[in-house]
Amino acid sequence: MGESKIRNPKSKIFLGIDGGQSHTEALVADENGVIVGRGLGGASNHAEYPGGRERLKQAILQSVGEALEKANLPPIEKTFFAGANFGMTGGADYKEEIIGEIVKAEHLIVSHDAPTALFGATAGTPGIVVIAGTGSVVYGENKAGKTTKIGGLGYLFSDEGSGFWLALQVIRLAIKEQDGLLSPSGLEKLVLDFFGREKIRQLTNDFYNAKMTRDDLASFAKTAHEAAAAGNVVIQEQIKFGANVLVESVRSARRRLHFESNFPVAGVGGMFRGQLMRKYFQEILENKLPNAVFIEPRFNPAIGALLLAYKQAKIEINKILLANLEKSQVK
Description:
Elements: E1 13-19, E2 24-30, E3 35-41, H1 52-70, E4 80-88, H2 96-102, E5 104-112, H3 114-122, E6 127-132, E7 136-141, E8 147-151, H4 163-178, H5 187-195, H6 200-208, H7 214-218, H8 220-229, H9 233-257, E9 263-268, H10 275-288, E10 292-295, H11 301-312, H12 319-328
Parallel strand pairs: 1-4, 4-5, 6-9, 9-10
Antiparallel strand pairs: 1-2, 2-3, 6-7, 7-8
Helix pairs in contact: 3-11, 4-5, 4-8, 4-9, 5-8, 8-9, 9-10
């Protein structure tokens, strides 16, 4: 191990974690907001599933271990953090106990990933975040500290506007096209070409027989979105519907949190990297909620977790700290 990248040897060390369905990101920083190490690990959701506890443990050990190594700090079992915040897809259920056995911190918080996404997007100020990745959820917090969460109940019961939702809607419509219930619009070919199947029944059978995962299906969303951007009206209408549901969720959150004058709304996740979702969402938001200000997220959720770790340790989130985070963040 080389010389520590923490400039002040007396500085407290902080940890921020963004744990999701595809990967886990860990950031290690000093008390002034200088990020000294970043590490990546595997998926850390569904700890309650068979093998999930071990998968979560390995994701934490790998991501935090790599971040500490890059910072030239002692290994995880010999490091004590002043604050550590874990924003986890699916929440803290089954995870807090496992993480508490691995990470030692004066302030250790394990919660769902929406607060970290909001804190990252708005740099710690009140507002609303719309997360639309594999799943979807809308989360907000006001000046009084009141919070609200809309949706986020999983792929069977909600998640409109998400990647899995869009992929599923297009596949359903492709089945109707295949069965002669809809006029041809290229959906059947789009689905079969992407998944390399001759019949959609082969695709559905593989999913039901656990040969394909939800993430496998959700990966089709990008291709569906590109087809919509290229002019497929049927898919465009689906994306508009999803964007509308997300805006209605923002409206509900605004009402619950009593936001009146201009308040920030950020969109994060893979769906918002698509041109049409951003366009439709922003247009519908401006039409239905003129007091909402659609913003670009300032930081990613992992930095949002760091900001929450600072807050829990009662370290002021000031301009200097935010500027240090900005300068030292890994693009």
